[in-house]
Design a protein that fits this description.
Shape of chain A: globular
Number of strands of chain A: 14
CATH class of the largest domain in chain A: Alpha Beta
Largest interface: A-B, 99 and 101 residues
Distance between the termini of chain A: 46 Å
Structural class of chain A: alpha/beta
Family (chains A, B): Belongs to the class-I pyridoxal-phosphate-dependent aminotransferase family. Alanine aminotransferase subfamily.
Number of domains of chain A: 2
Function (chains A, B): Catalyzes the reversible transamination between alanine and 2-oxoglutarate to form pyruvate and glutamate.
Largest sheet of chain A: 7 strands, mixed
Radius of gyration of chain A: 24 Å
EC number (chains A, B): 2.6.1.2
Number of helices of chain A: 18
Strand content of chain A: 5-15%
Catalytic activity (chains A, B): L-alanine + 2-oxoglutarate = pyruvate + L-glutamate
Oligomer: homodimer
CATH architecture of the largest domain in chain A: 3-Layer(aba) Sandwich
Strand order of the largest sheet of chain A: 2-8-7-6-5-3-4
Keywords (chains A, B): Aminotransferase, Pyridoxal phosphate, Transferase
CATH superfamily of the largest domain in chain A: Type I PLP-dependent aspartate aminotransferase-like (Major domain)
Amino acid sequence: MSQEAANGGSPRGRVLTLENMNPNVKRVEYAVRGPIVQRAVQIEKELKEGVKKPFTEVIKANIGDAHAMGQKPITFFRQVLALCSYPELLEDDKFPSDAKNRARRILEACGGHSIGAYSASQGIECIRQDVARFIERRDGGIPSNPDHIYLSTGASDAIVTMLKLLVCGEGRDRTGVMISIPQYPLYSAALADLAAVQINYYLDEEKCWGLDVAELRRSLTEARKHCNPRVLCIINPGNPTGQVQSRQCIEDVIRFAKEEHLFLMADEVYQDNVYAEGCKFHSFKKVLFEMGPEYSSTVEMASFHSTSKCYMGECGFRGGYMEVINMDPEVKAQLIKLVSVRLCPPIPGQALLDLVVNPPQPDEPSYTLFMKERTAVLAALAEKARLTEQIFNTVPGFTCNPVQGAMYTFPRLNLSQKAIDKAKEEGQIPDMFYCMKLLEEEGICLVPGSGFGQRDGTFHFRMTILPPTDKLKFVLEKIRDFHLRFTQEFS
Amino acid sequence: MSQEAANGGSPRGRVLTLENMNPNVKRVEYAVRGPIVQRAVQIEKELKEGVKKPFTEVIKANIGDAHAMGQKPITFFRQVLALCSYPELLEDDKFPSDAKNRARRILEACGGHSIGAYSASQGIECIRQDVARFIERRDGGIPSNPDHIYLSTGASDAIVTMLKLLVCGEGRDRTGVMISIPQYPLYSAALADLAAVQINYYLDEEKCWGLDVAELRRSLTEARKHCNPRVLCIINPGNPTGQVQSRQCIEDVIRFAKEEHLFLMADEVYQDNVYAEGCKFHSFKKVLFEMGPEYSSTVEMASFHSTSKCYMGECGFRGGYMEVINMDPEVKAQLIKLVSVRLCPPIPGQALLDLVVNPPQPDEPSYTLFMKERTAVLAALAEKARLTEQIFNTVPGFTCNPVQGAMYTFPRLNLSQKAIDKAKEEGQIPDMFYCMKLLEEEGICLVPGSGFGQRDGTFHFRMTILPPTDKLKFVLEKIRDFHLRFTQEFS
């Protein structure tokens, strides 16, 4: 190949190359949609083209995508969205009156009564009011101010925006952000993109992935030697680890954040996904306010929620919100300015969020069906959480904490030195080697633990518990069989 | 107030303040939703509360938000969206068969046949194929590859993503990005956020806001002294200036980009909005390929389109795409990784985009109504473009170029020295002073020219031509009366 061809046909080479592109972007990693998923998509194409494989379909248990796994949307939500999309349907007798009332109310709040108009960049005002009332009900009456609510394009959008506000300084003054290990890789990706310093604190696998303040302190002390730690991120219920924090633990974290002068970011998108006996979701906001004014009037915090998880699983709509507490009014003005550049979050997602925070009430015609659908989804998830833990703990070489909440299991794999050496030989991280082999042999797509972070020398994978119960059983058994084969092969 | 109270109740002050937040964010400005719009929203609240004003409603001509100004959605689009939202409607006789077929096809391409599932981060594959076919039809058969199409959350999202890839270097090596003045402030905002160097080239107001390569060269030569110019951004049809570039001009720009080794970004979101006799939209892609392989195989380019403008005006759905040409495959892999962090663009917006690029065909039942609605919107816009130019050019002290395309007029205001002095006295930029006064006295919300950039000593405002014809006439006359009064007051 001539030099010119190698340079993309130009003697000077391309304007934009791997060498001269944004170096922060190069550092970004996002395992949930990484190489293993790209290979899964390829395999699906091969299957379609008639290539013979030891399986007939690829089961994607790599991402918390409930509808893709067959979960049906909540009827009421979709009725209102259809009415908002095509308001001529408001004349149709087929739709219940409460769905029509919700749609009318949303449309009245839209410019020109159309969901095709932009909204205020912070989100439609009456929806922010509904969000505030939802938070108040959830938190036993602790007040929430609609002015402190920002609607977003999924929770990811709000999390990245909040991190962006917080990052400043150079060298040893660069902002450091504490994230749990294992973590959801949106955090590490956003920090790489922003060139912020990632500070790892480890969850305790032996204690059901619990969070210990001593570990937070160790990690912070260490980090202070080389950066300026300003932010503490918590995911509760945990992703990928599925633990649900106790009230006491949340109190300890808040006290720590106050003492150490840290901005708290509480990712609470799985707040309805709590399954384990004795576990309960406690919002950081509620605990903060119950700790008294010394805390509730000083600790700065943002908490995040989404339409993508819980019982809705409406990932495709990209709906979400954040509530900010004790934020400097001047910073809030900057935040509003920043979000205005992207104009507004998608209106269908805003409308959906409105229904999530303001669902059918007992005296409304859609209530019974809504509650039936909601309860069925959450009960099935609880059942699948139990099933997963139970089957995985029968696999020799697996250690699996209970899935107390969220949508994932993150079992620990005991890999032999021979397997580890073989992976190294192939230039792969051992758990990536394991998951790739599982994909090729069984058509099951998981995410290696290394994509979330784990203690050196330990290996895990993340699997969603979302497939329908029968299929989940099948997947769990397939993984067990594979693991036994794998163990034998590398013993 | 005690020091502690001033510090947000903490003796150490807040974690996050205006002083220690991200300095890039502080530099961001976005006039289209700036202070004047915030004041407009306030005035609307005052009117609701019964405060007496010299007007009864605020007319927001600050933003290209067609539905908010009363434009009705295209029936076919909304029918399909309702069907996708609530597939039970597929059984309903009320919907035409082509709408049902489109909905079925979209749903089949969605995970679990639900628009609530995530899609591939690059966008749903069959929609990217439809986009590629749309581009091929538009560009007279020049091939388009679905792998080079990236669906996005409105065009803004894709533009920011593309800029992000391109920014690197420090000091004199920092990436410089050439943007037109006047410009759409998304560009300056994104560059501030990315700490890239903004390089201004001026459009020629005397020549209908034409783009002259000599001015590009002047601006580039100047910029090379202090940064590394790598990108040239073009908006055609122009925003806020409404010019439509000739084929010759586009050829000159492409030749310049090749000679000067610049990455081209072509913002073509107003491609259907061309009104002036003798003007025609030429896509950069088509011209590039017609210039022969010397250009079409070397010049790196991204072009952007959106569901928010043209005849659809569906801003709230945040749909859009970009097509990349001659991008380094390794960079494309990085781009896919980067967009995967945000999971996917909203599915309702992707579905809407599919309908825009694949509208009803002559042999389909919805064709007649679709064409009637589309034609009516574009004809009304053409009429309003003419009306605006005509009335504004009767105002003494206004100079108004024809609105050849897009959705805005950007007239030049002759302000007296007395008015300029008065504005300075009040600490305001003169055209902000003018627009604020217009808002307070007439309830009309425009954006000052300073928000887009303009030659020193000249003053403008941007006004959309979107209000319904009668209301637009009323607005134009109100502005004329105001200007006469203003001129008298400060003569």
